[in-house]
Write a structure and sequence with these properties.
single chain, mainly alpha, globular, Sodium/glucose cotransporter, about 500 residues
Length: about 500
């Protein structure tokens, strides 16, 4: 540990909190607080989408995947592109038809209040669980940085808990004050920081491998680390149990991202914050280019770390999610190590702030405001939105503290999300692609879709990359089938 590293980390935490809180004065209405006043440029929204899509799970989890395997995870990114085409074609025109604040208002227009609350409630549960994993991922970083200090003081467990709470409170402060505007612009700063940090650490890793860059790339290639595609196909359980294949990546990745970016408020909120539908579409596709570059960068870090530990004979840390941050802290020059650790914390804080604002917007706009019997303008609900944000901060901190035995943080986060995404996407597709399906049929379809994915997870070896496809198909088919027997007068928005 070096004083300059501590100074860099402390300066970052203080600086980003101050920067985000400066946007508080511009928050005068719910539109300002939840949609940034529709003033953010498309490129800032694109970078904010990337920050929300990746987070600490990507920064520490992706290198671990290529360390243990290869570049197969990139097959999912191909599906991400297809999903963006679907979202821009099917969902965006509907989202920009009138002023809406959340994705679930679209379901109210099409089906009614009950399906709105069901889909919004599903999102709240999904995001609370998935974000809890991401909060726990921060504890991995903090345990590496602060572990020796806590050990000397004799309260390691309590010290880690205090560190997590400190990060949550700092993030909560500027999110409470600045709303989505603060979220987007701090996302921009934080994303640039952690990508620069990754590029710097990649250069250092390459320089520390015996034989230099040429040998490192050659050794990684010979070990099969750069293999991307797996085209094997067969109608067997073994085929569906492989997490990363071309077919699972393209099809499964498409369904996963259509659900996450097209139906989950965390992402839809950013799309709604754009100045126009055209800028929203530009942000969506630009974010894919950045995602491709970013995933490739972190996978390359993992491949080079594999070569580093093999060539030096050193024992890699366990669990695998510690490989990248522990190398940074132990091997990067003073100052640089602090910068990269600050960058990793930046990724976690950017995603946490986004989740807090999305959870608050859904709670206020889909539950509190529609059910409120009191009249009042935006000022009353704006004050309420800020305090709802505080409540969700406490909930996410609590979930993070109990999410300690869920396996790989990256795959745990994706698995949790995938269980619920199928039902969400299925009911959104029922609402946008059909006219005869009513609210009861849609709710029945969503229930069957959820049960089908839970059954897959508990009783089969099917990989999480297929969950959304199966859940969406079950939801859509059930909704259509029930509509044949339950006659309703469907709404059409």
């Amino acid at each position: 540990m070096h004083a300059i590293d501590w100074a860099v980390i402390a300066a970052y935490l203080a600086g980003i909190t101050w920067f985000g809180s400066r946007f508080g004065k511009s928050q005068r209405s719910l539109r300002d607080y939840f949609l940034g006043g529709n003033t953010a440029p498309w490129w800032a929204i694109a970078l904010s989408i990337v920050s929300a899509e990746t987070s600490t799970l990507t920064v520490i989890g992706t290198p671990a995947l290529s360390f243990a395997g290869n570049f197969g995870f990139l097959q999912l990114v191909l599906g991400y592109l297809l999903a963006r085409i679907v979202i821009s074609t099917v969902f965006l025109p509907l989202y920009f038809r009138g002023q809406i604040f959340t994705a679930y208002e679209l379901m109210r227009r099409r089906f009614g209040e009950r399906i709105r609350r069901l889909t919004a409630g599903t999102f709240l549960i999904l995001r609370a669980l998935a974000e809890g994993v991401r909060v726990f991922a921060l504890s991995i970083i903090l345990s590496i940085v602060l572990g020796p200090v806590y050990s000397r003081l004799g309260f390691s467990g309590a010290g880690e808990i205090a560190s997590i709470l400190a990060i949550v409170c700092l993030t909560l402060f500027y999110t409470f004050e600045g709303g989505l505007t603060a979220v987007i612009w701090t996302d921009v700063v934080q994303m640039i920081l952690y990508v620069v940090g990754a590029a710097v650490s990649l250069a250092v890793i390459g320089g520390q491998i015996p034989g230099g860059w040429h040998h490192a790339i050659q050794a990684a290639s010979q070990a099969g680390k750069f293999q991307v595609f797996d085209f094997r196909f067969a109608w067997t359980m073994q085929f569906f149990s492989r997490s990363y294949s071309f077919w699972g990546g393209v099809v499964g990745g498409c369904f996963l991202t259509t659900a996450s970016h097209g139906t989950e408020q965390l992402m839809v909120q950013r799309l709604l914050a754009a100045r126009s539908q055209g800028e929203s579409r530009a942000a969506l596709f630009a974010s894919w280019v950045v995602i491709l570059i970013q995933f490739s960068l972190f996978l390359l870090i993992g491949a080079l770390l594999f070569v580093y530990y093999r060539e030096t004979g050193l024992r890699p840390p366990q669990p695998a999610d510690r490989i990248y941050p522990q190398f940074v802290w132990n091997h990067l020059p003073p100052g640089i190590a602090g910068l990269v650790i600050a960058a990793i914390l930046a990724a976690g804080m950017s995603n946490l702030s986004a989740a807090l604002n999305a959870l608050a917007s859904t709670t206020v706009m889909d539950f509190i405001k529609p059910l409120s019997s009191k009249t009042g303008g935006d000022a009353r609900f704006l004050s309420m939105a800020r305090w709802v944000t505080v409540v969700w901060g406490g909930i996410l901190a609590a979930v993070g503290l109990i999410a300690r035995h869920w396996g790989s943080v990256l795959e745990a986060g994706l698995s949790i999300a995938s269980v619920l995404y199928g039902g969400l996407l299925g009911v959104f597709l029922l609402g946008t692609l059909t006219r005869r399906v009513g609210e009861v049929a849609a709710m029945a379809g969503m229930a069957v879709g959820l049960l089908s994915v839970v059954s897959l997870k508990l009783f089969t070896p099917v990989a999480f990359t297929w969950y959304v496809l199966f859940g969406t198909s079950a939801t859509f088919a059930t909704g259509l089938a029930v509509s044949l027997f339950v006659k309703e007068e469907p709404k059409h928005g």
